[in-house]
């Protein structure tokens, strides 16, 4: 009597060692040249509130690549002077992803000075919003003073930052899962075939399966393990399936400081992945 079904132990191996290659477009340091003539002050134009609610545009002198936009990432009341700024860590590791998403949504990655003052203003206050509480009291009364369309724009930029935080955390804690803990094989001629098993994971970019005996084929959005009878020995056989997977990447803005107490921290429109 021949058995048509056989249950073979299914050893799931998922590597916990991740090798990450980071594409870095932001410089390790840059020289800030503050052009006070391009101060953007929307007390009268965009936001009618009491107090000095403003965003600053700093032309960035970096190699021969022209002038890029620089945004504040600290307390808006802090001073900033012409000096060398060097990469440093954010207060929270996901802040860079949030800032990059807001800049991308507000003005675009790599944007230079040819951007509207309105876009710069709303991008800046959205950055301050998501960096709170470490950004301090960035814009008292601003949100209540916005028109409905301005508030919609501001809220969309903040939402982009919050969505990037979720994506960043999913990528940081990236893992894949199988929808089965064992392989149930059925004999088809001289080959045992497993059920379809599927691999999933948040921010999953690529995936493939390998097996220590037999082969893996794609089927119905998942994978089937096929093992020839000739490869199996009498008694217990262990089939080990390994998932090889990569996650998506996410843009991350760098934080910069000039190392001086009481001075503003900044970010620029060149990002890392």
Characteristics:
elongated, 273 residues, alpha+beta, seven-stranded mixed beta sheet, five-stranded antiparallel beta sheet, 4 helices
Task: Describe this protein's structure.
- By secondary structure, this protein is α+β, with helices and mostly antiparallel strands.
- It is built from four helices and 20 strands.
- A seven-stranded mixed beta sheet has the order 13-16-1-10-11-15-14, with no helix packed on it. It has a five-stranded antiparallel beta sheet with strand order 6-5-2-8-18, with no helix packed on it.
- The longest helix is centred in the middle third of the chain and has 25 residues.
- The radius of gyration is 27 Å and the shape is elongated.
- About 9% of the residues have low confidence.
